[in-house]
């Protein structure tokens, strides 16, 4: 994630989102879930300090209330980088696109807002971010896997057989070059 973030920022990509822990990940074996949470606890403070040095804001999408003592680490990372304005890294933790949609609708209803495109968007976890231009799916899968379902409406999709740990700066450069050649119509002619 660090290497990809650094390279993307150098290439002028101001917003990056990573799917780190899905709502469905709770169905994995306990040892695997505990390992993922341990990675958050051990790795996130270091990542936050590094992002602060690079002037990059960390934001999180998903319901982080379920992470127990790891929730404090997530909050500290968010606070540490809150004044950074050199880019944004959005990390999905206990995130699922369907859950986000239900949450956004319920937030709008609770506020007494009519549910329309504007109020719905303003109640998403990603309300502070633009919709993604590019979504990259690694690992040979050809699906979104419940990732940013609403926001992905006009995103350009790229599917790679490369596994995430092997995703490189060269892969990102190739995708961004191809993206630059696509004719984006956003539903128009």
Please give the structural blueprint.
Elements: H1 2-10, E1 15-22, H2 30-53, E2 57-61, H3 69-80, E3 88-95, H4 97-110, H5 117-122, E4 134-137, E5 156-159, H6 169-181
Parallel strand pairs: 1-3, 2-3, 4-5
Describe the protein.
Helices cover 41% and strands 15% of the residues. Helix 3 (69-80) links the parallel strand 2 and strand 3. The relative contact order is 0.15. The protein has a domain at 131-180. The longest helix has 24 residues, at 30-53. The model has no long low-confidence stretch (mean pLDDT 95). The strands form two sheets. The protein has a three-stranded parallel beta sheet with strand order 1-3-2, with helices on both faces. Strands 4-5 form a two-stranded parallel ribbon. It has helices at 2-10, 30-53, 69-80, 97-110, 117-122, 169-181, and strands spanning 15-22, 57-61, 88-95, 134-137, 156-159. It is globular, with a radius of gyration of 17 Å. By secondary structure, the chain is α/β, with parallel strands linked by helices.
Structural class: alpha/beta
Task: Give the integer mean of the pLDDT values.
Answer: 95
Radius of gyration: 17 Å
Q: Write down how many β-strands occur, each being a DSSP E stretch of 2 or more residues.
A: 5
Beta-strand percentage range: 15-25%
Q: How many helix segments? A: 6
> Which bin fits the share of residues in helices?
40-55%
So what's the overall shape?
A: globular
How would you describe this structure in keywords?
189 residues, alpha/beta, two-stranded parallel sheet, 6 helices, 15% strand
């Amino acid at each position: 994630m660090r290497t990809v973030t650094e390279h993307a920022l150098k290439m002028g990509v101001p917003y990056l989102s990573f799917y780190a822990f899905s709502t469905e990940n709770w169905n994995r074996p306990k040892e695997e879930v505990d390992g993922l949470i341990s990675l958050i606890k051990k790795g996130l403070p270091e990542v936050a300090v590094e992002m602060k040095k690079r002037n990059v804001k960390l934001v999180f999408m998903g319901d982080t209330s379920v992470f127990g003592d790891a929730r404090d680490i997530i909050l500290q990372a968010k606070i540490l980088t809150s004044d950074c304005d050199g880019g944004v890294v959005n990390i999905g933790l206990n995130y699922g696109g369907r859950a986000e949609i239900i949450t956004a609708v319920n937030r709008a209803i609770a506020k007494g807002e009519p549910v329309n495109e504007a109020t719905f968007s303003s109640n998403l976890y990603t309300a502070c971010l633009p919709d993604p231009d590019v979504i990259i799916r690694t690992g040979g899968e050809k699906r979104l896997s419940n990732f940013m379902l609403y926001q992905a409406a006009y995103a350009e999709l790229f599917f790679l057989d490369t596994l995430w740990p092997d995703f490189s700066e060269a892969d990102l450069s190739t995708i961004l070059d191809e993206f630059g050649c696509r004719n984006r119509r956003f539903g128009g002619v």
